[in-house]
Amino acid sequence: MPTTPTTIHPTAIISPEADLAEGVQIGPFCTITGRVTLGPGVRLIASAHIQGPATIGEGTTLYPGACIGFEPQDSKFTPGSPTAGVVIGARCLLREQATIHAATSLDTPTTLGDECFLMACSHVGHDCRIGNNVILVNYTGISGHCEVGDNATFSGHVGLHQFVRIGRLAFLSGGVAVGMDVPPFCMVNERNRLGGLNLVGMRRNGIPRAEITEVRRAFRECFRTPIPTTEMLAMLDERSGDSPAVAEIAEFVRGSTRGVCPGMGRPPRVLTTWLQRRRRGEILDDVGHAQDD
């Protein structure tokens, strides 16, 4: 339990409907409007704004300019309409100007899991479901209705299209735009292109070496070369019997409605052979065949 007392700066404006737990600290010029529940030890440093309905879990910190629960940026939403709002988990960090919009739905709120880190000027759109330990680096924008699995990492200036799904432990490189689903454990290096596996993240999260090996084999077979989804699923299912991680990828692909990002692909064998022989200093003609002396 928090050891610090609840403190509210005299310039803060707090709704009478708000429910503040022990140890909450609300700094200058913050506003809390409507039905808002703040868990133990929640901190609003200064000029943070929350529009209810909203629930914020224990130990979460909102930095200056963070805005939570305001109306969705959806042209179909009528301003002033009721909404399920926002639910944020415990021990999250929402840095300067981070925004999370309320749901368009009356039943399911926009949700952010535990221990997420939203860096400055990052955005989570309406009706999104964000897992635990997700990192959004500066200026990343997640559009409405997206789903993000646990431990996913978004580098700076990443843009996600509506309804996109991001799998667990996925990694998105800086500046990429993504309009297709990204399977678990995969890295996106270019627009809608898988560049490989997030091996560093897998190791750091304690995935066994044998599991990583199985995922690497499945990735080479199913994503390096474009193949039909039905064939991909058959290959993944065949490999998933002894590998929960591969089974997770198969289940993710099976549930995709937008399609899954393809891999970068292998270069043609004749090209790789030509490059290898050229590095060895062999005399080659224009099409890669050794010339007769």
Describe the protein in words.
The structure is a single chain. By secondary structure, the protein is α/β, with parallel strands linked by helices. The protein has a domain at 7-145: Hexapeptide repeat proteins (UDP N-Acetylglucosamine Acyltransferase, domain 1, 3 Solenoid). 18% of the residues lie in helices and 24% in strands. The protein has five helices and 28 strands. It has helices spanning 199-204, 209-222, 229-239, 244-254, 269-279, and strands spanning 7-8, 13-14, 19-20, 25-26, 31-33, 36-38, 43-44, 49-51, 54-56, 61-62, 67-70, 86-88, 93-94, 99-101, 110-112, 117-118, 123-124, 129-130, 135-136, 141-142, 147-148, 153-154, 159-160, 165-166, 171-172, 177-178, 186-190, 193-197. The strands form three sheets. An eleven-stranded mixed sheet has the order 1-4-7-10-13-16-19-22-25-27-28, with no helix packed on it. A nine-stranded parallel sheet has the order 2-5-8-11-14-17-20-23-26, with no helix packed on it. Helix 2 (209-222) runs antiparallel to helix 3 and helix 3 (229-239) packs antiparallel against helix 4. It starts with 6 loop residues before the first strand and ends in a 14-residue tail after the last helix. The model has no long low-confidence stretch (mean pLDDT 92). It comes from hydrothermal vent metagenome. Keywords: Acyltransferase, Lipid A biosynthesis, Lipid biosynthesis, Lipid metabolism, Transferase. InterPro entries: Acetyltransf_C, Acetyltransf_C_sf, Hexapep, Lipid_A_LpxA, Trimer_LpxA-like_sf. It is an enzyme of class 2 (transferase).
